[in-house]
UniProtKB/TrEMBL annotation, chains A, B, C, D, E, F:
Assigned protein family: Belongs to the carbohydrate kinase PfkB family.
Key word RNA-binding present: no
Biological source species: Enterococcus raffinosus ATCC 49464
Domain Carbohydrate kinase PfkB per the UniProt entry, residue ranges: 4-308
Domain of life: Bacteria
Signal peptide region: none
Protein name as annotated: Carbohydrate kinase
Length: 331, 331, 331, 331, 331, 331
């Protein structure tokens, strides 16, 4: 099974040990992004994965390429042009203090200014069985929207699978009527999609589907409308101030929910991508829904315990923790 | 509103990542002290603040000055003389292991050997609306006592506000009858004070006020005696091994108590100063007592989640957490 | 009271701040091992301690020696030969993610290829009152088995005390019938032992003693059989997902159990050695069983809050925490 | 004497210890720029200095402000708007390997998109005696050109001194005929300038002045044309593979050249700004030309031995090294 | 052009900043080895490269694989078996203090215990045009000798190019008559080799060729005997205590020598591999000998200025420094 | 041969990588002092060494003790009292920028306030063959002078050797007529001394001996006057801006001078102590003067290449470098 992901690579800069940016001169540099995260996790799981993006044609592009290769992702679909990489600063939270993310210019990044002409989508599709398209590309610029729509359409037409996540970031959209604008984008891409990650709120608030019956019915209605095979996501709870999370997964015939899992959070960012990677694993391995959602929920739990956005879990590790609750030492 | 604080600047040296001093050669250097902490926090809150102290007339004094300026505190009231800065080592605790603080020589520091003649208190008072005097200066040396008493008297006589905190450190006093000695000091300074931070225990054990009725009555009796406007402090609890804290605040007419807040502690030291800075904010902004104490209690909760003694919170951050309980990511 | 320990010194390499090995180029280097841990802790407690082992005859041996001296352990019984030190990588766990230990070649280490001829056991015994023998040496190689058996026999014959811990590591044994093989080893060494650390499971699964009555009866039966003075160990519990631990301690006349203590874990490895060191302290100080087991259980709690394997607690610190529950700052 | 500088604040990110960006995840963060460098050095020299720039209105702007305050520069002329700060990565060279600087997007930085309306130039001029304008602002964007020209004109008209440096960066200009375009810019600003930093090559290649006689005559011709008071710069040599540098300084009546000084380079960037700050010091202190140029050349030598762009030398330090050649330890 | 290298991957552990191992707990971890170094450099130069080796089948093997992928080397020819990776500690020298390398067990590493059966040499040869075989494999163990000889023979028989370097490490050989033993090994492999790296001393001392005429004649005689196409190496000089190096390169028709280049050494290890990678580049690009040797000598100069063994230079960088002597800043 | 040293242990705090104190929050902590340095080096050379000093009776004292033990120095002559350790900050120089040392309070350190009553000098003398007394103790306080004089007298009277170094630090003396005061101190201690480290300038300026003939004659006159066995020191030169150093060594019959050695300086502090330790080695080993002074001069050269004050050289290393000039890699 060969996966490819289309999305932006971002430079993440974070101070060490829960320090604030004004408390230190030291930063940790990582290269990340929804596509990187999902492909890296799938590579850890043993699959062949590629990244489809444009990196700066300078030292930063080379360094990002090396980081991507280190995750086990294939780099031959990367393109290099322009001179800017989007970046963000993450000041890691602790206790009641939330993690603070500050974005630097994303709209003018090498990815942000590249439309479909920057890529060789035919090659991408020829070398992949499933293409993941990050929803942020629909918010970013006209160029990234163009590329995302083109890729989704071509992939579907080639009979390959398309996976999409909503990932709506209101702060990135500058249009006067964001919601209407984004609804249009989503409606344009969804007909080409087979697997979708999102929440009920994405369906009601973004797609403005009307909630007539239960949430389950709404989801099935959505899946039927766009001929979606799998729809998945997570829900968070807070019980006695302890954060918890469960995963859900729908096919058009049935659905499954994972047990609620307590979250001990080392790094909040990227855990959703771990969930997605694990769901895709169940999909390509043809695991049962329940098996898949439990694996994915635990993978997300573990991703919360790993520094940085990129979930470096292995299948074996997820199974070990599922089978040995409370295990705290492996020799 | 212009604030000034009189107090010692100390060099804090702490090993990284919960290591003990004999486990590493690496130390983190910070410049701290009650005055620094309160002024830094008020500067973060948007006020003009100054520090009134004597720093060594050498590289360490220059470095301390740079650190103070970085916190946004004005440095033109600083004086430079002698060659020693008081310092302490903090080995950060974890779980059942308490934080261990080891002091180096404070009595011979540039601050410790400077009496009122080292300062230009007229300028201090002319450029400030409220002067905070750290109670530790009453314990330290004859010189610092002299300076503290002189400054309190002159400030009050000039019609500016005086804020005082008890901050009794038995280990710093070497007099045979510490309590009697310190009681005398407190009785001498309190008539000049408008805002006082302390606990019921300070009133009964140090001032040796007799507890006849309730704690509330004792506090009001104390405030009446010295014509104190606001009296404030915090109380700690332990429920199911979870540490909690509440703040209290008295005017002579009414009082307010914050909800109990759970403490997740990254760094224990300096959180009391965050509480004080926030109370002073409510005072100068003429917020209601309840509003003030809730803001202050949350500010103290957040200060526990920040490395080092200096509470680098902002008003906006405190309000965000008050209004969005459980929020753990801000983009 | 003079203690000596026979066992391997290992090089521990761990990435900082809960990072995985593929996330960083930085490692922390420590020298550790059951013998090092117990002797270091006893040295912190004020006793004279020595280590009996073979280190590489190169820079690593010198560096290991310096690390051992830093712990306050005497180094004149060390021997230097060959060129390899056993090592392991520890990726520190967080929340649901277990700590992952990866061993490098232990069988060919300087310790692993040294039999009793490499040592001057007469000198060891002459200069010690109690010799601790780590059970791992019975699993490792024919050479280490030879040395351990020889040392136990000679120590007992000289009228000095022998302390032994089971410490069975199935992954180190390569014999076809591990259990039978190890049972033979244990049966050979136990007649020389006075203090033994282990669990009921060691008695039933390794020694294959039959559980007829209660666990207490089984333990007494075992102690009677081998004329053991003290038998001690710990038991772990999980209540509401909070890990807890209690210690137990048997003489042939009575036994004691500590209160269950909650574990907040900074570093999982080496806490059992802290428990052993504290039990030995009670033994040589002739403390009562109950006093000893409570001291030991709290020492183990504190060891969980210290980075690395070596428990750098002091007696004073353990007593302070026992007497002031919840204390989180010492100045 | 009160100085102000107009120019961009940049975020500098550099890996530690001569490592390349693909060899580490660690970066050092500094805030820098010609204006920052010169004002910081003058503040170290004991003068009042301010920075006139636009910083992002987010966490990065706050952090940059704290860094600027730490250098002793006044921050009340700073403005906060937009969300991007220009940044660059510096991979420090060693031996034959040159330092590699990689710029990220500067054109869309908060500074780059701000014209004169973003500032309160009246206040800048009222609070300053000399305004330094960085020539890079003429290359950057239409907005920065507008701001620079406006400020130069207003400052001159108010009878305050204007200092300008050529600082031509061809890579920043995107106009078809860069040289002609930049010549026009320089000709527009020079009539308002009193002190100019540059080289003979700037006069011949950028201003396209014709070299008829000697270099000295060309410089005087240039100074006469624009009524420049002081013109200064440095020249580099390489003798026996040892890098050397000398400074020159012209008034319209006389000129001075410093001895050639050997360069031992720890950090190449920012040393020119140290030279400029020292020349300005001689200017405001009315030192003789020769005295000034020797002080400035040594200040530049020392700046090459300090990490980062910001020259943290003191007057006392420069004099000590001038008076004690070869001194390598001060206690 | 597709390259493959056969050789051991070693774990290099070095303390930071010229510290000794007993001065710090911090180590930098790198994965290195002659094969890694040459393939990494060739990958930086833009070629497809693969590594042929056996890594441990555990976390260390995975981490090593990630490191190799980060260098741009293909990882699909890697094999995973056993549990040990050879390692060494490098204490970086300074001035008169030499770099101290301490090896840990190499003979029992996963590579050391693997003979030709561990590999799929057919696949290696099918996917490569030139195979580099590290001479250390002839010194290490019977298994590595077997694998090296088998691979050389099969590669030559398949009509692909074989590159070999002498790289004699006397400390690795334990045979009674090392020289005779190794001579036999070399004589066995050389008939299959096309490009050889070595020195005149390798020819006289190891191969025991008799020096009758000049060095040039000896080299030609050696090349004729084994039908070697290219023979290359470096020579070091010390002039006025300044270290210098030149490269030489022989075809059977002509030879070339580079200018002597001064060495400023940041890290001594691995620079020879940079030289080899650059010679191979000239070979496959069919550059003239003189052009090749100058490129290679400068590449080696630059490799001395980069931390670690792996030469992360690019072609563009080498040409820039060749064409701009003394350049110390690139923006 | 058993050595003991009497002197202060100081805490050294230095920023990493040539950074200034205002450029970083990171410090490296070391425990140092003339006595520590000489004893540590002699311990590395294989001798039994002890330190005679008073350390603070708190965590810092314990940490200092661990550091001393790590150097291989025996710790049983240490005493623990009071709460302060003298400290200094070292900002490492580079090129023309000198190393800047800033002392914190030494006069009130545990060592500074301890006179001979704090020690068990009988035990010191009984357990030592040669006692080294650091001359700084004559400058520091009345208490340290008392202790130094007492120890020198008692050691000489017991027939053990006394070694003394001038080590005059004008900044530590506060007496009105420093030179006369110190001359008196020196004249009081010299009659008990056997080996003295100093310079001709110490003899002329401090002892105010009149230079009538040559320097050699002056030294012999001094040695005769006080019955000194060996007098040794170093001289520095600067040739072509390259720093050089030679050692000299006088017995009363002959003298020897080492070759001039070039200095490549990583850390300037403590190199004199390496020279002293090596001279003492020659003394106890009864090496010839020339052999001794060459060994000592090279040991000092190597000490300049090691971070921190403590010279961690070995005899073997010194001989290797003496015998293999230019060697830069040992495997």
């Amino acid at each position: 099974m060969r996966f490819a992901a289309f999305g932006e690579v971002m430079l993440r800069l974070s101070p060490p040990e829960y320090l604030l940016l004004d408390q230190t001169n030291d930063l940790r540099m990582d290269y990340t992004g929804t596509g990187v995260n999902i492909m890296a996790n799938l590579a850890q799981f043993g699959y062949e994965t590629s990244l489809v993006t444009v990196l700066p044609d300078n030292r930063l592009g080379q360094v990002a390429k090396a980081a991507i290769a280190k995750y086990g992702i294939k780099t031959d679909l990367l393109r290099f042009a322009h001179h800017h990489i989007g970046s963000y600063f993450a000041e890691n939270g602790y206790g009641a203090r939330p993690t603070q993310v500050t974005y630097q210019n994303r709209h003018h990044s090498s990815f942000g200014v590249s439309n479909h002409e920057a890529y060789d989508f035919e090659k991408v599709i020829a070398e992949s069985d499933l293409v993941q398209i990050c929803g942020i590309s629909l918010s970013l610029t006209d160029d990234t929207r163009d590329a995302a729509h083109t890729l989704a359409k071509k992939t579907a037409e080639a009979g390959k699978k398309v996976c999409f996540d909503f990932n709506f970031r209101p702060s990135l959209n500058t249009e006067p009527d964001k919601i209407a604008f984004m609804r249009e984008q989503y409606e344009k891409i969804l007909p080409y999609c087979d697997i979708v990650f999102g929440s009920v709120r994405d369906l009601t608030d973004l797609l403005q589907l009307e909630m007539i019956g239960t949430e389950d019915e709404l989801i099935i209605q959505f899946m039927d409308k766009y001929q979606i095979e799998w729809f998945a996501g997570t829900r968070r709870f807070s019980e006695n101030k302890q954060k918890q999370q469960e995963g859900f997964l729908y096919s058009r015939e049935e659905y499954a929910v994972s047990p609620k899992r307590e979250l001990t959070i080392l790094d909040r960012i990227g855990a959703g991508d771990a969930y997605a990677a694990a769901i895709l694993t169940g999909y390509v391995e043809r695991w049962r829904l329940q098996e898949t959602v439990e694996f994915a929920a635990m993978n997300a739990v573990l991703a919360h315990t790993i520094h940085g956005d990129v979930p470096l879990t292995t299948k074996e590790q997820v199974f070990t923790v599922l089978e040995n609750p409370g295990i705290d030492l492996i020799r």
